Amino acid sequence: MTKKKAKVHSTNEFSSHAKQEDLLDLMRKFPNLKSVSINHGETNVKEAFAKKVINDINPKKVSILGPENYIRFSGYGIMKSFVATDLNFNITN
Fold first, then answer.
1. End-to-end CA distance of the chain
2. pLDDT tier at 50, thresholds 50, 70, 90
3. Cβ(13)–Cβ(22) under 8 Å?
4. Mean pLDDT (the chain, rounded)
5. What are the φ/ψ torsions at residue 44 (nearest 5 degrees)?
């Protein structure tokens, strides 16, 4: 056990268990949002959320990531990228 010595006033982190509306509210705070990558959940859930992001937020690009489609990030940005499902070409708004 460790004794907590700090008070957390706020955090900018969302877990994969955040509600969809909370995640959409966070995205709305970025008016020039260019890209959203959806990584967590079953394929049908990720696709449904991606459609909601496109309809509600309308970023330039929405990608669904998974075991065969992913991007590796570091503190310096994208380190390695692999083909991701790009919904902007498959969905009509």
1. 52
2. very high
3. no
4. 75
5. -65, -35
